[in-house]
C-alpha cells in the first residue's frame, strides 16, 4: 500500500464520496480523505477519512490499458451486481461474507466503491506456512475456504450440465497471450493444445451441473477473520461453470507459492489434499465427491499455472518451470 496524499476538494470524486458514500458510514461535515494506492490489476485505491477513520475502496475500471469504455462499464456493472446478488442470497454475515458495495458511478471513470474489510490475506497465511512452518493455521483456513466455496457452489447449482468448451476457449486465450508475447515456443504450445483436446474428450469434464463460481479465487482476493470467517473480494469474474474451476485455481495457486518460495510444489500436497477433502465433506457421499473432483482437477490446476505464467512480472526461468509443471499436470 502506497500513500499518495490527500484527495483534493476540487476532485469530482471528492464530492461523490462526501455526499453519496460517506453519509452511509459516518456523519462528517468537512471530510478530509487520505489516499493510498493498492496493488491490483485495476486502479484500486483506499480512501481514509482522517477524523472518523472511515475507510472505503474505490475500484476504477476505466483508464485501464486495453479496456475500452464499453468493457469498463460492463466490468463495473458485473462487480456491483455480483456483490449485491451474493449478499442477497446469504453471503452477508458470519461465516460467509462478500464485501458490501456502497455505490457505482460510470461518469467517474467507471468506479465501484466498496466497504473496507479487515482480515488476513490468504497470501500471508500461505507465506507464513512456507517461511515459518506455521502449518496449522493454513490447514484451518483452507477448511474455512472449502466451506465457503462449497456453500457458494451448492447454493447456486443449476440443472444444466457444464459446457466445458467455454473453459477450453479460455485455455486458448491464455495460450494466445503467451504466444503473442513470445513466452512460449510454437512446438511447446502445440503440445499443450494436444493435451487440452485430450481433456475435452473426457466424459468426466462434462458430467457435473453448472454452478456459480467466483472465477478468481487468488490469494489476493480472500481475507480470513476469526474461526471460519471468510471474506471474498473481487466478483467481476463470477460466472456459471464447473465448480472445479474454483478448486483448481486454489490448488494451482498453492502449487505456485510452494514452487516459487520453497522450490518444490509437492510440499503443497498435504494442504491440497486437506482442502479437497474438506470441500467434499459438504456432499452426501464424501468419497464419491472427492473422486469426481480429483478426476477433473488436473486440467484446472494446469490452467491456473499457465495463467500465472502469462504475467509480465514472471522471470524467464521461473516461467519455464511453470510451463513445464502445467504440461506435466495436464498429462
What is the molecular shape?
globular
- CATH homology superfamily name of the largest domain: Aminoglycoside phosphotransferase (APH), C-terminal lobe
Percent of residues in beta strands? 15-25%
> How much helical structure, as a percent, in the residues?
40-55%
Averaged pLDDT, please?
96
The SSE order reads EHEEEHEEEEEHHHHEEEEHHHH
Give an overview of the whole structure:
- The structure is a single chain.
- Helices cover 50% and strands 16% of the residues.
- It is an alpha+beta fold and 331 residues long.
- It folds into 2 domains: 2-115, Phosphorylase Kinase, domain 1 (2-Layer Sandwich), CATH 3.30.200; 120-330, Alpha-Beta Complex (Aminoglycoside 3'-phosphotransferase, Chain: A, domain 2), CATH 3.90.1200.10.
- The strands form 3 sheets. A 6-stranded antiparallel β-sheet has the order 1-2-3-4-8-7, sandwiched between helices. Strands 5-6-12-11-9 form a 5-stranded mixed β-sheet. Strands 10-13 form a two-stranded antiparallel sheet.
- Strand 5 and strand 6 form a beta hairpin.
- The mean pLDDT is 96.
Amino acid at each position: 500500500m502506497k500513500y499518495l496524499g490527500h484527495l483534493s476538494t476540487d476532485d469530482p470524486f471528492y464530492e461523490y464520496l462526501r455526499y453519496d458514500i460517506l453519509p452511509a458510514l459516518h456523519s462528517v461535515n468537512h471530510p478530509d480523505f487520505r489516499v493510498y494506492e493498492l496493488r491490483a490489476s485495476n486502479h484500486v485505491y483506499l480512501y481514509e477519512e482522517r477524523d472518523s477513520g472511515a475507510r472505503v475502496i474505490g475500484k476504477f475500471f476505466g483508464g485501464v490499458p486495453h479496456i475500452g469504455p464499453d468493457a469498463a462499464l460492463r466490468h463495473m456493472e458485473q462487480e456491483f451486481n455480483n456483490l449485491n446478488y451474493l449478499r442477497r442470497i446469504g453471503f452477508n454475515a458470519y461465516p460467509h461474507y462478500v464485501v458490501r458495495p456502497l455505490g457505482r458511478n460510470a461518469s467517474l471513470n467507471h468506479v465501484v466503491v466498496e466497504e473496507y474489510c479487515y482480515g488476513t490475506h490468504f497470501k500471508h497465511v500461505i507465506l507464513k506456512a512456507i517461511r515459518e512452518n506455521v502449518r496449522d493455521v493454513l490447514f484451518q483456513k483452507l477448511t474455512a475456504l472449502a466451506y465457503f466455496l462449497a456453500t457458494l457452489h451448492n447454493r447456486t447449482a443449476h440443472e444444466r450440465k457444464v459446457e466445458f468448451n467455454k473453459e477450453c476457449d479460455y485455455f486458448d486465450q491464455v495460450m494466445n497471450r503467451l504466444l503473442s508475447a513470445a513466452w512460449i515456443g510454437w512446438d511447446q504450445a502445440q503440445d499443450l493444445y494436444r493435451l487440452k483436446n485430450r481433456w475435452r474428450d473426457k466424459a468426466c469434464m462434462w458430467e457435473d451441473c453448472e454452478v456459480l463460481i467466483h472465477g478468481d479465487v487468488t490469494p489476493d482476493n480472500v481475507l480470513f477473520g476469526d474461526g471460519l470467517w471468510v471474506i471474498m473480494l473481487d466478483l467481476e469474474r463470477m460466472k456459471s461453470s464447473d465448480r472445479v474451476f474454483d478448486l483448481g485455481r486454489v490448488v494451482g495457486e498453492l502449487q505456485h507459492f510452494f514452487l516459487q518460495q520453497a522450490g518444490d510444489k509437492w510440499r503443497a500436497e498435504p494442504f491440497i489434499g486437506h482442502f479437497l477433502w474438506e470441500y467434499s465433506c459438504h456432499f452426501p457421499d464424501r468419497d464419491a465427491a472427492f473422486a469426481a473432483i480429483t478426476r477433473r482437477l488436473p486440467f484446472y490446476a494446469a490452467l491456473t499455472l499457465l495463467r500465472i505464467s502469462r504475467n509480465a512480472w514472471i522471470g524467464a526461468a521461473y516461467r519455464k518451470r511453470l510451463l513445464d509443471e502445467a504440461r506435466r499436470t495436464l498429462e
